[in-house]
Design goal:
Elements (H helix, E strand, L loop, with lengths): L18 E4 L10 E4 L3 E5 L5 E8 L16 H12 L3 H11 L20 E7 L10 E5 L4 E7 L4 E9 L4 E8 L5 E8 L5 E4 L4 E7 L12 E9 L5 E5 L2 E7 L1 E10 L14 H13 L3 H16 L3 E4 L9 H11 L3 H18 L25 E2 L3 H4 L14 H9 L1 H12 L9 E2 L11 H4 L4 H16 L2 H21 L1 E2 L6 E2 L10 E2 L5 E2 L6 H21 L3 H13 L19 E2 L18 H4 L3 H14 L5 H13 L3 H11 L15 E2 L5 E2 L6 H14 E4 L8 E4 L10 E8 L3 E8 L2 E9 L7 E4 L4 E5 L2 E2 L3 E4 L2 E4 L6 E6 L4
Helix pairs in contact: 1-2, 6-19, 9-12, 11-12, 11-13, 12-13, 13-14, 17-18, 17-19, 18-19
Amino acid sequence: MLALLACASFSTAPKQSETIWFDKPAGSFQSSLPVGNGRLGAMLFGDPTSDKIVLNEISMWSGRPADQNRLDAWKNRSHIVDLLKQGKNSEAEALMNSTFTCDGPGGSAGGPYGCYQALGELHLDFRSPNQSLRNYRRELDLSSAMAKISIDDGVSHETRELIASAPDQVLVYRLKSTASGGMSFVTRLSRAERATVEADGNDGLMMSGRLSAGSGQQENGIGYMARLRVVLPKGGTVKYEAEHLSVSGASEALIFISAGTEYSGPVPGKFMGPAYRETTLKQIESAARKPWPRLLAAQRKDYQQLFDRVSLNLSGSNRASLPTPARLEAFWKDGDDPALEALYMQFGRYLLISSSREGGLPANLQGLWAEEIQTPWNGDYHLDINVQMNYWLAESTNLSECHLPLTSLIESLVQPGQRTAKAYYNAPGWVAHVITNPWAFTAPGESASWGSTCTGSGWLCQHLWEHWTYTRDRTYLKKVYPVLKGAAQCFLSMLTTEPKHGWLVTGPSNSPENAFRMADGQVAHTCLGPTIDEQILRELFENTAAAAKELGVDHDFGQQLDAARRQLAPTQISPDGRIQEWLEPYDEVEVHHRHTSHLYGLFPGDQITRYGTPDLAEAARKTLVVRGDESTGWSMAWKICFWARLGDGDHAESLLHRLLKPTGAKGYNMTNGGGTYPNLFDAHPPFQIDGNFGATAGITEMLMQSHRERPEEPFTISLLPALPTKWKAGNVSGLRARNGVQLSIEWADGKLTSAKLQRTIGSPGPIQIRTSLPVSVSVDGGLVKFNEVKPGVISFELPKGATAVVRPSKLG
């Protein structure tokens, strides 16, 4: 029975440690500490004798805009589709490779596609270093976004503090020493290629160059510049000597870094463009005039207004006193350190704040942090899951503003995507396939085996809709509706009828990066209507029609989308009881493949659980069991989300445990090498940041979910829907649910003790909560009546700014 009862105030608990720390310098990039302001990034190594900081700027992209569309590809499409309808998939794939891939090298190294590159390195060589590691500590404090080194040999004490300031748009490295005579060191900038270093006044350095534009156009890429400035607030000297600065007798030194590139589009945002030289000079001069306390206060205020929105405390063992690598090892052995899992969740939020700010480029495959010139997979934006996974946490963990760079990237793809839609499908609207970059690449990839995935644009559009469902920002919806409409128009035009059932399907396409075996034993990738495509289009058509209805436009078009949606191929259950990945129950070439694309409708979509289909949910569960838990890092993160959506918190947590397996693997492993590096970066391997972001989203899904069970119903908020047994007690605050609800939850003995919900927008309808317990609800201290919609689901009104407290009832 559901009952009304007076509620006590919601308690708050002190935060658990939010620090990653080491008792020695970093021996590799995977042990260094990341800071970032959304545009500038740095990795602190912290050697007492010869310190190094890897530097990044998010628009450091080689390559150039290049149209790699095959303009007459559409003329071959009907033949390819006919071959697929006849079951001649291998012939269709061969024809695709010769006529339906991109016209050029695509994402191949050295071409115009380009790659994300490291900016360079800052070096500091100390003349009289404090070399004692007896009392050495190197840490990253997530609560302040500061990386810090402390060295104490009993005679003198030295500290080094690194921040990335968004307000001042600089990196600042502050060094202090109590040693007699102060510090003496040499500092310099370097880059592995295409760099010239020269004096920038007597107290500064300037490193500049131009990146490659691709084969045959080696000098036509964008220009870049990094400036270094040394300020000595308490005495000492600094002078320029042969491409480096020499500092002597300083008890305190501030090293400023500004950087920028010539990039100015096509991604809309606040980029430097041709004025990058002047802009970097203004930024460093402005910052260098400010004292450290003022710089620090501005940086912290900016960062903490984002980070402090959410806190998570999990009771139980807490090994925060161990250096993080040792803590990871201990957790891998016994799985007993819930506070480490909470730290990992907050680390994901820290990384998104640090690598994705409004007006910039979105977080890429490495977020913002790279040490190479040729980054793995070009450090680009893969549209068959990876860039989307980077943003699964944005709305639910209260970082909605950090989601906006992805919106800007999506908008930049519309115009080139229109050319691609015309070239390959002779269709209106726009399309993007499986890879893209800041130059707005939208053509298929260079090989049909992976590059023919055609629903990248559809998947991206889910993020436009998600931002709307959380914020209900009608101005935003009006802005992005043409993008949704254009994507839907393209797919509506390109759908074809498959011969067996008369379903509308995509084609040619593939299930991302996976292969199947035909009846004759041949291995193929290209097909009609893979399950993920149909799920994405079902969602895209529904969302676009709903957006049109909300805005009061395109009534007839919305009806067209609804009609087409009903004709799409349904999600099928294969003869062995799993979700079927393709239209036909083909044999899998790789049963444990890292992609589990046919479960898109489970997560990030909600089709498998939304429509009250226990058979599909059970088939999804069986799919996951057969696929197996062990995989690459990001794949395990996705599986955390899957199991959380199915309500199995223990399985989700066991995958989180696997993901936190310590590893030092740096080479490519496409099967089961996933884990976590000493600095908590995700290991694909190599380093790939989507695993960090995806796991953070998965942890959030264990604690709270908000979905519609029917399209016409309000969103239903589930409290602790997949709470692991190990997380017996704890509290989380600041999470966000769809329809503008912010909430905090406390629990003990594995059960809800209280939840607080606040409406942050004008009420678009009632609040619905799913709970397995009888509960009481009070709004701003007064008891309210609510409706019991169905067993375990209650509904009540909550005006904007009002707060509801939900507690288990002592009655019934």
